Amino acid sequence: MASAVASTLSSRPARAAQPRAIRDPAWARWLLIAVALAFLAFFLVLPLVVVFAEALRKGLGFYLASVRDPDALAAIRLTLLTVAIVVPANVVFGVCAAWSIAKFRFPGKSLLTTLIDLPFAVSPVISGLVYVLVFGAQGWFGPWLIAHDIRIIFAVPGIVLATTFVTFPFVARELIPLMQAQGTDEEYSAMTLGANGWQTFWRVTLPNIRWGLFYGVVLCNARAMGEFGAVSVVSGHIRGETNTMPLHVEILYNDYNLAGAFAVASLLALLALATLVLKSILEWRQTGAP
Amino acid sequence: MSMNSQAPATTEIPFPPAAHARNSRSILPGFGLTMGFTLAYLGLIVLVPLLAAFTRTAGMGWPQFIAAVASPRVIAAYRLSFGASIAAGLVNMVFGLIVAWVLVRYSFPGKRVIDALVDLPFALPTAVAGIALTSLYSPNGWVGCWLAPLGIRVAFTWAGVFVALTFIGLPFVVRTVQPVLQDLEPEIEEAAATLGASRLQAIALVLLPDLMPSLLTGFALAFARALGEYGSVVFISGNMPMRTEIVPLVIITKLEQYDYSGATAVAVVMLVSSFLLLLLINLLQKWSRRYHTI
Asked: Which residues neighbour A28 within 8 Å (Cβ) at sequence distance 6 or greater?
């Protein structure tokens, strides 16, 4: 930690802290900084800038019209609805998984932790495909669902399920190491002092994990709003009905309505920027605390 | 943590504290409820649907399976997906190390903003990244218009797939190497210097071996992500069969032709590769952790 702090200071004290023998020559330092910045400018900054430049190419009026278009509004509503279902579901799961894994001892714990991470290793396209195999017309429950006139694939439930799969690990993987590090001492104390299980959870555990939980929610939310591959397999692309924001971007782009596509895309880019700002604030909080 | 509270009294406890903690049954409530919910939710959302892919393929029969997963068009897609993912992973390994090095060791204006921006590929929806990169690298785009006179085409070629996969894998190496670099003691470099090593020797022979496990982990994570990536690639690749078609797109194409078995067979090949990669990543992480507790 000391070396990290020292390296952020360029003035005298840093030189005193970092001996000459392990300091890189100035030309090497500036060359490496230039290479790193050029690489990041090409791969991160330019794509971000081009989204907003293309979105505003036809003027602010066209931009606002694209965003207020009924199909765009329907896509925004569907995305918000999906997030409103998926994020709370994954939060409840994440808290339960972290409570059972971090506070208790049982065999097979590392296997369970690996299984929770599994959706990160699966291609988004395959995440959508497996739900088609379960609920699609040719799938396991297909005939039964058709007989009862229930639509899951090419409808909103399929979109919600595929998004849940893709964002499944975010909250849990944030909370498990955090709660493992915090241990059980405080909960034991609360129980000894006469608190019941719920009181212990609400008044002791939850305040301790609230920032980690928030961090997980921010990441889960960003991915849920932006998911494209999995949703594209199960959605059926019905305009105004089963189009989420990323799918609407794709449709406009394929219609050669570039300014419109980038206008909706710019909303998602703003979401990404807000996510990064929140993430940084939370991380600075964490490193600032002892 | 409960072991810590007993640390001062260790000498008086006849058995090791770790063994004591393992034997003690937790007095906290809710294990049955939370574990039950965790397993049910994991099973319903993740395991059962994944199982559907394997049972569907099991019902296919070998000749049919081989025909689906080894047709020339699918082989060409494997070659592109694996090749471009490895290339993008290697580029990210080199530049990711430089970015992590610069962020940890040097100071320059705007460093905090740049540090935060490294996570952009995680936060930016892949479809947005896809259309942004396509617009940049198409022949009349901001970058493409400089490359076009040189005869270099990026969008709608192999190179476009590589650019998109490099973007998507960028944070992995930086974020795995950064904390390790931060925790390295300056003393080992000083020791190398006092023993007569030049700066380059110290970096190549002392630092790099220490960073290797995290570099490889970052590479494997970026590679695994790139293999399955869809949204950022489909716009820039042009999707020409045999030439710029990635494996996830092959799966979607088969689905759109109602060839469910064929799509699932290819998906199973990809699932098995990802699971093997996940295993490799877990082993790498164990290795790097052991490296660091010493």
From this structure: none
A4 inside domain: no
Structure tokens that stand for B259 in this block: 């060839």
Q: For B55-62, which contacts have Cβ atoms below 8 Å and span 24 or more sequence positions?
A: B56/A133, B56/B260, B56/B261, B56/B264, B57/B261, B57/B264, B57/B265, B57/B268, B60/B261, B60/B265
Q: Give residue A188's domain range.
A: 58-288
Asked if B293 has any chain A CB less than 8 Å from its own CB, the reply is no
Same domain, A71 and A143: yes
B178 CB neighbours in chain A (<8 A) are none
What confidence category does residue B292 fall into, taking pLDDT thresholds of 50, 70 and 90?
Answer: low
Report whether A45 contacts A38 (CB < 8 A). Answer: no
Q: Is A136 helix (H, G, I), strand (E, B) or coil?
A: coil
Instruction: Say whether pTM exceeds 0.90.
Output: no
Number of neighbours of residue B61 by Cβ within 10 angstroms:
11
Nearest to B105 among A7, A122, A125 (CB): A7
CB A131 within 8 A of CB A162: yes
Is A219 in Cβ contact with B264 (below 8 Å)?
no
Helices marked H in chain A: 2-8, 12-17, 26-40, 46-55, 59-68, 70-103, 109-121, 124-135, 142-147, 156-167, 169-182, 185-192, 197-200, 206-226, 229-235, 245-254, 258-288
What domain count does chain A have?
A: 2
**Chain A touched by B278 (CB under 8 Å):** yes
Q: Are the C-beta atoms of B139 and B181 separated by less than 8 Å? A: no
Question: What is the per-residue pLDDT for B186?
Answer: 79
Beta carbons of B136 and B232 less than 8 angstroms apart: no
Distant-in-sequence, close-in-space partners of B158: CB < 8 Å, separation ≥ 6: B80, B84, B243, B244
What is the pLDDT averaged over residues A27-35? 92
In a domain, B176, yes or no: yes
For residue A154, give the 3-state DSSP assignment: coil
Among B179, B207, B181, smallest CA distance to B192 is for B207
Q: How far is A223 from chain B (nearest CA, A)?
A: 7
Distance between CA atoms of B29 and A8, rounded to whole angstroms?
46
Q: Give me the pLDDT at residue B235, please.
A: 94
Query: Is the pLDDT at A192 greater than 50, yes or no?
Result: yes
How many domains would you assign to chain B? Answer: 1
Regarding whether A50 and A133 lie in a shared domain, the answer is no
Mean pLDDT across chain B, nearest whole number?
Answer: 87
CATH classification at residue B125 = 1.10.3720.10
| Backbone phi and psi for residue B194, each to the nearest 5 degrees, phi listed first | -70, -25
Chain A closest-CA separation from residue B248 CA (Å): 6
Q: Do the Cβ atoms of B139 and B155 come closer than 8 Å? A: yes
Residues of A in contact with B235 (CB under 8 A): 253
Residues A63 and A51 in one domain: no
ipTM of the complex: 0.88
Task: Suggest the residue from B28, B92, B225, B246 to mutate for an interface test with chain A (most A CBs closer than 10 A).
Answer: B28
